[in-house]
Amino acid sequence: MSRVVYVNGQYLPYWQAQVHVEDRGFQFGDAVYEVIEVRGRQLVDATSHLNRLSRSLGELSMARPMSDRALLHVIGETVRHNLVRDGQVYLQVTRGAAPRDFFFPPAETIEPTLVVIARPISKTAQDAKAQQGLTVTTTPDIRWGRCDIKTVMLLPACLAKTAARKAGAREAWFVDPDGFITEGGSSNAWIIMQDNTLVTRHIDNKILAGITRATTQRAIEKLGLQLDERSFTRAEALAAKEAFATAASMQVMPITAIDGEKIGTGQPGVMTLQLRGVFYSAAEFTDI
Ligand code: PMP
């Protein structure tokens, strides 16, 4: 199968898809993105992802490349070109290309860059991973003060996740200067206390308001479980009954150890797997 990428109005073979060398996404990380799950040729929670994209663009005074309707059309075409049934769509918007200068160029002088990539991911392989669970390491949160904006400035996450991998783990959890877990390198962080209360950090500028986090919240309500949205410490996480991560790339993913210490039995938690099982019943599906 030949891969096809959408870039600025064209569907191009993967290796020919390019952006300008003076694209501000390339030079300044002046760009935002979204990752949307594709399941059974439908998009999962597309409305929420596109709303968050609009918010990210707005926070950075960046122009929209096109309407949501047109974006959905481009996403659908890219998914079809790549024959993706289950997988994900990566969508990036940059401020556009301009001679390198820190100041934002006047909006009328620059066209945003839009890139859409779709790739298949085996559902079976993902479910197998969930049966195993993943392990995490903790690391100081060295990111900036606007983690609520989904920008491509992901170097701290790359450093943290690479260090995690070196330590034999799959994800890194960031810890703020007060000892509280903020979120994962590319996921939101959750624990389940011994009394079965779920805990995940409240939303503010220190974390991304995960779309999968919001859907998981709805699943929690459906199941009649207790949720406490508040900061939690590394020590609380180590003493938790269960832990998990949420992201569009993994839905609800059990965590079995933190910094080499087992969480609960060291196996994926019962409540976590139950939440994973009902996750899609709380999600929105959009035809493309
Ligand atoms: N936090 C961070 C830092 C992330 O990068 C991601 C995934 N992109 C998430 C949380 C989870 O967000 P979502 O559920 O919308 O994928």
Distance between the termini: 20 Å
Main beta-sheet strand count, sense and barrel state? 10 strands, mixed
Name of the CATH class of the largest domain? Alpha Beta
Mean pLDDT: 97
Number of domains: 2
Shape summary: globular
Class inferred from helices and paired strands: alpha+beta
Low-pLDDT ranges: none
Order of helices and strands: EEHEEHHEEHEHEEEEHEEHEEEHE
**What's the multimeric state?**
single chain
What is the CATH architecture annotation of the largest domain?
Answer: Alpha-Beta Barrel
**Hetero compounds:** 4'-deoxy-4'-aminopyridoxal-5'-phosphate
CATH superfamily of the largest domain: D-amino Acid Aminotransferase, subunit A, domain 2
Describe the structure.
- The protein is 28% helix and 30% strand.
- Helix 5 links the parallel strand 7 (134-140) and strand 8 (171-175).
- It folds into two domains: 4-121, D-amino Acid Aminotransferase, Chain A, domain 1 (2-Layer Sandwich), CATH 3.30.470.10; 126-287, D-amino Acid Aminotransferase, subunit A, domain 2 (D-amino Acid Aminotransferase, Chain A, domain 2), CATH 3.20.10.10.
- The chain contains eight helices and 17 strands.
- The longest helix is centred in the first third of the chain and has 14 residues, at 46-59.
- The strands form two sheets. Strands 7, 8, 9, 10, 11, 12, 13, 14, 15 and 16 form a ten-stranded mixed sheet that branches.
- It has 288 residues and is α+β, with helices and mostly antiparallel strands.
- It has helices at residues 24-28, 46-59, 68-81, 123-132, 155-166, 211-222, 234-238, 270-278; strands at residues 4-7, 10-13, 31-39, 42-44, 87-94, 113-120, 134-140, 171-175, 180-184, 188-192, 198-200, 227-229, 232-233, 242-247, 251-258, 261-262, 285-287.
- The structure holds 4'-deoxy-4'-aminopyridoxal-5'-phosphate.
- 4'-deoxy-4'-aminopyridoxal-5'-phosphate (PMP) is lined by residues 35, 183, 186-188, 208, 210-213, 246-248.
